[in-house]
Sequence to fold (618 residues):
Amino acid sequence: MFDIEEELKKLPAKPGVYIMHDAHDDIIYVGKAISLKNRVRQYFQSSRGKSPKIASMVPKIARFEYIVTDSELEALVLECNLIKEHRPKYNTMLKDDKTYPYIRVTVNEPYPRIMMVRKMKKDGARYFGPYTSGFAVKDTIDLLRKIYKIRSCNRSLPKEIGNDRPCLYHHIGQCDAPCQAYISAEDYRKNVSGALSFLGGNYKEVTAMLQEKMMEFSEAMDFEKAIEYRDLLNSVKQISQKQKITSSHMDDRDVIAFAKAADEAVVQVFFIRSGKLIGRDHFYLTGVENETHSEILTAFVKQFYAGTPFIPGNLLLQEDILEKDIIVEWLTQRRGQKVTITVPKKGEKERLVELAAKNASMVLIKDSEKIKREEARTIGAVREIADALDIPSIQRIEAFDISNTSGYENVGSMIVYEDGKPRKNAYRKFKIKWFKGQDDYQSMEEVLTRRLTHGLEEQKELEAKGMDPAMGSFSRFPDLIMMDGGRGQVNVALRVLSQLHINIPVCGMVKDDHHNTRGLYYNNVEIPISRNSECFKLITRIQDEAHRFAIEYHRSLRQKGQVHSVLDDIEGIGPARRKALLRHFKEIEAIQNATAEEMAAIDSMNMAAAQKVYDFFH
Fold:
């Protein structure tokens, strides 16, 4: 048993990270401290000064652990990594986990290439970005290859010059084939320099060159070539228009501001590189209801820059952040150069921050309806199910389905929905072991018995250790069991629950003659559900998901060659007799219902073999 008072006495007065666990042993909060002893003890002292979020979290702490580090900076890095990995409930969380594309120019190679990458490395190459659109990056790279004839192959040049024929790109005029030495290294480098100038925002040079080429071919009556250069010119103009000058300073900076409503915030980031706005993006933060502006921005900066490979030289923020000095030190270390964080109060920089804040507000307003719709289709739909069944509340739903091929390799699926959303790490598969043949009711009885018995055993084990019996993966029982079927499947579930002395509501998901969801079967009554309700849509999703999960498991077994006809399990029935039986009776059910005499009358069969088949099914 974890004794919090005793463990508090053992805390060291050293920097590190502390991790709070609840009764289910889930990580609910991660924080860092200069002194673990002082910081962690504060949580369990008087509630005065605590935020409402922390005050509601503390009673849920069942135990804590900590990791000692050599410095506060190490603790900050570890805290960022643990939050990203575990996504604790009471931490302010960045919902989006995006990676941005970069353009990489391998200037460290004798014959450089241009490519799109998702990570920056210290490899001597030049990187441009990050860009918020992968399509825009591909379009830019295609354009540069067409204009400057930059190679796209992975050949090791000049080592492999002349080893193979030039590729298709040379034949369509998009590569000067340095692999064949059709262009000198010096001239190829000039082309690369032009591409680098273009990526740096110098469009005038390439625009003038393309304009000149277009007019030259037009005057020579080579209109096909002239159109080609006209299209390239239009592409350059499109790209140049997207990168408008936003700053008189030619440095790299991110402009960050946010807007907040209830428990969510939207953070807007403008990416400015070499004085040009190359993209913008917005991000969602949850768990911000009782957070200050500084706390929200601090959480965003730590989580966002822990995951992005590019750190600009300057961050322009809407508000000052907490732990500013240590965060600046961390960012400077990651960048390898000095990073500054400023809150502009006037002039051009302040206007940029205001613009970002306005954009964040617009996104929040636009998405508020989307958020409401998402709540309606999840938590709202679960509430509707509870009301329809007259159950006080439902948080966890488990649904079950059976899948087989002609009675062989019966498998069962258990899927879990919590607050109207699938919890896929709690899904379970069952391979039917207790009997052979095709009987969905027996299969379902086995699945439910094994699932619930395992849960009861796990609860006893946890209780014996002085732990919460609902902490295990099987010991946490649902608030509602949903069966894929009507009266028959529900009665199977109720019989199993009665035998194990467990009280859980059970309903059946009833389908019509067209195999579409019709309603719920509960307490010997079929409850109709409106097809336009969110409740109906959730029931359909649960039913489809249970079926999909069972089918996928069954298919995986079949692909491994483990699934075959149930007739293969009958001694004395080889391929010839199996084919004869299936050819005559068409399906397994007809064979099950046939008499031994009817089977013995078929070619390849005799009474002894027919009796074995009959005995197998009866």
Summary: Residues 406 and 587 are 8 Å apart (CA to CA). The first strand starts at residue 16 and ends at 21. Residues 347-389 form the longest helix (43 residues).
